[in-house]
Amino acid sequence: MSIKAIIKFLDDYLIRSGRQSIDPVEANALLEKSGLLRDSKDKPGKPLRDLLRKGQLPHAFQSGGKGSSWTIPHSTKRKTAPSNYPTVKMTTKTVVTTQPKQNTAATVDITQLKQNLEKARLKYKPDKVRYLLIAEAPPDSLDRFFYFENVHQHDYLFLGVAEALYPDLKYKFIASGRDSDIKLSILLKFQADGFYLLDLSELPLSLLNKDLGSQLPSLIEKIKQVANSDTKIILIKATVYDTAFNALRQHGLRNIIDSRIPFPGQGGQKLFQIEFKKALKAAQYL
After folding, report:
1. Residue 236 β-bridge partners
2. pLDDT at residue 65, as a whole number
3. Residue 218, Cβ neighbours under 10 Å: how many?
4. In terms of residue numbers, what domain contains 184?
5. What is the pLDDT of residues 225-258, one digit of tens each?
6. pLDDT, tens only, 83-113
7. Rounded to whole angstroms, how far apart are CA atoms 42 and 156?
8. Cα gap 209→57, rounded to integer Å
9. Is the separation of the CB atoms in 61 and 7 below 8 Å?
10. Whole-angstrom Cα distance, residue 13 to residue 136?
11. What is the pLDDT of residue 43?
12. Which among 88, 118, 150 is the end of a domain?
């Protein structure tokens, strides 16, 4: 195993795909196909995460601090800061297009990116939001956004939520090879049942040059726009709970479920189901 070869392979992949970064699960799968690093069947991405924890890829970082998900940018783009937060400001306002299509290389500016994500999100906003889920951020690979209909891989958050709420539809979705019509039916049911999802950060973490706490004022304003006094709020991912739980309560939002739910990826799927279903029960959904 050559660390230099692994870094070069991932750098070349990011350049070819036009992406800003990649997560360990997807990266490890690509590395296994190339013969550079065998993946784990039980815990996808674990061999690469072990290397990341040892500092073998020093340009990778955990935006939410220790215990949060890893982001692997191009090796020349960013070095790890002592706090595990990215500190180098972005030198460009272009990112990969948000259209969920394969092999699309067009770029949009940050303002356009936010508009595209918000347009997809608002398409499935319920008339009355009964249950508000708050995740960490849109994925670095923008074609995996929760509210896009055409997502073909690594849609961990959507799959985790769908399994807890609509297990039969989720099974049908996977068995079909992620048919977009089935995902559409799941999103419409999600909407009809009063569920809505916001992100603590408006932008993917690879484009955020501040800590998550800086996003709280914007999040609080958005919550007040979509929620009412009866809306139950569920925080997804430990970093979101640690950053937002007390802050939201201090701003008068009282219907927040006190549950530190892990993200349903990188081996956390089973625990997510347990904790998320507990939160749903506390929210009087189950």
Report:
1. 261
2. 63
3. 13
4. 97-282
5. 999 999 999 999 999 999 999 999 999 898 999 9
6. 332 333 333 333 343 344 333 333 447 888 8
7. 15
8. 20
9. no
10. 25
11. 87
12. 88
Tell me the two tokens of residue 82: 């002592």
In this structure, are 204 and 274 located in the same domain?
Answer: yes
59 and 113, same domain (yes or no): no
Q: Domain end: 69, 88, 107, which one?
A: 88
| pTM (two decimals) | 0.65
pLDDT one-digit tens code per residue, 146-155: 999 999 888 9
26 in the same domain as 155? no
Cα–Cα dist 253/258, whole Å: 12
The one-character DSSP state at 23 is -
Query: In which band, very low, low, confident or very high, does the pLDDT at 77 lie, cut at 50, 70 and 90?
Result: low
CA distance 202 to 185: 25
Rounded to the nearest integer, the mean pLDDT of the chain is 85
Residue 94 has a pLDDT of 39
- Provide the number of structural domains found in the chain: 2
> Same domain, yes or no, for 72 and 133?
no
Distance CA 214, CA 200 (A): 10
| Cβ atoms 253, 223 nearer than 8 A | yes
Domain identity same for 129 and 228: yes
Task: Name the β-bridge partners of 233.
Answer: 132, 256
Burial of residue 174 (CB within 10 Å: 0-12, 13-18, 19+) is: middle
